[in-house]
Inverse folding.
């Protein structure tokens, strides 16, 4: 929060984006909505996992691929974009999908903080109707449908990717 306050004060003092600078300069933990806090927490937590997935995917490509591309006169960024990354994307798609599904399932934990997600809505509904079993079964089925749908989408994308590197056109 201190870094955000400093950025806001700098923007405000420089006269850049005055309204946003003032908002950022006076922000504190209590002024941030719980929903925003939860979204930030999930994003920050899973960004570390995603960075490792992409790092591992890029490092799994043989060094000879980069060396061959560079020997053909490609710059580093061209070699990454046209040779290494298309192969790495194919390799990272399964663990990337696994992380997205895990994040979907972990999002149910935000109901503990009072964020109105599916689980929280089920808790409110079941408390008012005393139909706990039925309500949580429906909530569970909703998460199951979302998870299976995401898994099927990822399987479809994985099958569309060419088998031996490259991008599909």
């Amino acid at each position: 929060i201190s870094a955000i306050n400093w950025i806001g004060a700098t923007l405000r003092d420089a006269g850049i984006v005055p309204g946003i600078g003032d908002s950022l300069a006076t922000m504190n933990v209590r002024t941030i909505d719980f929903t925003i806090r939860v979204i930030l927490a999930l994003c920050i937590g899973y960004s570390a996992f995603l960075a490792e997935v992409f790092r591992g995917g890029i490092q799994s490509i043989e060094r000879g691929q980069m060396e061959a591309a560079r020997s053909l006169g490609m710059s580093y960024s061209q070699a990454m974009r046209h040779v290494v990354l298309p192969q790495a994307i194919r390799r990272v798609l399964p663990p990337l999908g696994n992380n997205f599904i895990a994040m979907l399932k972990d999002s149910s934990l935000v109901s503990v903080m009072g964020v109105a997600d599916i689980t929280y809505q089920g808790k409110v509904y079941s408390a008012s109707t005393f139909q706990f079993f039925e309500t949580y079964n429906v909530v569970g089925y909703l998460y199951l449908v979302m998870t299976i749908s995401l898994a099927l989408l990822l399987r479809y994308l994985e099958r569309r990717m060419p088998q031996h590197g490259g991008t599909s056109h």
